Amino acid sequence: MNETHFFNRREKLLEQMKEGAAIIASASHAFRSNDTEYPYRQNSDFYYLTGFEESNAVLVLTKTASEAKTILYVEAYNAEYALWNGAKLGLEGAVERFRVDEVRDVAQYPGEVKDLLREHVNLYIDLFDDSEVLRKAKTAVQELRETRGVKRHIRTYRDVTHLIRTLRLIKSSEEIETIRQAIAITAKAHHIAMRECHAGMREYQLQAAMSYVFLEEGAKSEAYGAIVAGGNNANTLHYVDNRAELRSGDLVLIDAACEWELYASDITRTFPVSGTFSDAQKEVYNAVLDVQLRVIEAIKPGVKRDWLQRMSEELLCDALVALGILKGERGALMEAKEHKKFAPHGIGHWMGLDVHDPCPYVDESGESLAFEPGMVMTIEPGLYFRSDDESVPKRYRGIGIRIEDDILVTENGYDNLSSMIAKTVDEIEAMCNQL
Ligand SMILES: [Mn+2]
Fold it and tell me: Total structural domains in the chain?
């Protein structure tokens, strides 16, 4: 993606804004311990509008009846900082790199924000952002209100994130390509995990094999904390301990994926530790796979996530009856939410700059949004039977299975962006047993 993409996104945001100003801050550094920081990762909304990955930056957009203006505040060159951490882009570099009207020194922002807001009545911000940048802006708003003779001043705080995240719903072809890059690396990592897995290994060793691929391929980060869950650990939905020993005869559920140029992938596969599914595992696996394939097949423009959620719950409920785990009629079972005990999570979520892209799921009236080409959603049904659940036939206890792919809505239907990753029983067993 080049500066034109980011420029066009700002233009679209300005079109959506009423008269006013928007202030969007970069992410802050987070400390991990004492003076040691977590790796820095830009705020997704800020990145979406700028493509700028440095901290301590502020984007200001202003719009009046006659003109719109974009100012990017960045850190000026600092010799001391450069000595320790390397030079930042600086003012001159930023002018060349970004198609904004002005680049200014971020040190000037506190002194200038009042002037930027003068004469405006709407201020677009992240309403939940408590950063110093927004505190300064709010102080400026208050000072302007208290200044004699100022007739027009900010009267309404508006949610800028809703506008940005609505734009983020529809991915451009460049964004799709970036997501494909992330998935290509993640695919390689999942296949390596299948091939290297054997009984006696620790879960973290499989995680390490995947992390090696991510780093070796140039991905800066995982898209989220990896779940590598052997046997019954798969029934803890957000299991991230990853320290147990993998046992022969168990399955291992891996929900892990990398981020590429800040775009996520999100993939789950479940496979046998020793390379061969038992009959009981195969029965549950194929039941989940069948639901996943049927839900994916239903995706096309106009379809709503709510429908897919409902459909997946019905199919999972039927599967639970077919496996002899639930007894009764589907309507009554679903009414009583009996299926939720074994299929507790949603069918999928938006994915993009955030693994759980915080784009809207409903329109202004609360109706589930209809799919449009360019939207990307994960489809990830699962069934989970705890080892200590005596209501479940013994042969299924301790089995936890989730299968997750990343699906692009297209003009005519869908494109499974992660279809290259082994998924059927045969494909998985072949991959697991490949040297
Ligand atoms: Mn997911």
Answer: 2
The residue-averaged pLDDT of 212-239 equals 97
Residue-wise pLDDT tens digits, 60-75: 999 999 999 999 999 9
Question: What are residue 377's DSSP bridge partners?
Answer: 350, 407
CATH of the domain at 51: 3.40.350.10
Q: What is the mean pLDDT of the chain?
A: 96
- Pairing relationship of beta strands 405-409 and 20-25 according to DSSP bridges: unpaired
User: Residue 402 catalytic?
Assistant: yes
Q: Residue 395 sits in a domain of what CATH number?
A: 3.90.230.10
Does residue 435 have a pLDDT over 80? no
Owning domain of residue 255: 170-432
pLDDT given for residue 81 in this prediction: 87
Instruction: Calculate mean pLDDT across residues 237-246.
Output: 96
Same domain, 177 and 134: no
Q: Do 158 and 174 fall within a single domain?
A: no
Gap between the Cα atoms of 154 and 137, Å rounded: 11
Residue 414, pLDDT above cutoff 90: yes
Distance in Å, CA 266 to ligand 1 centroid: 5
Indicate if 72 and 190 belong to the same structural domain.
no
Do 43 and 189 lie in one domain? The reply is: no
> Cα(383)–Cα(38) distance, rounded to whole angstroms?
34
Residue 240 and residue 286 in one domain: yes
d(CA 80, CA 62): 34
Q: Is the dihedral of CA 156, 161, 164, 167 positive or negative?
A: negative
- Is 345 marked active-site? yes
Residues 6+ apart with CB under 8 A from 13: 22, 49, 61, 160, 163, 164, 167
Q: Of 118, 147, 168, which residue constitutes the final position of a domain?
A: 168
Is residue 318 part of the annotated active site? The answer reads no
**Set 168, 269, 349, 386: catalytic member:** 349
The arithmetic mean of pLDDT across residues 204-209, rounded, is: 98
Of 75, 175, 261, 266, the catalytic one is 266
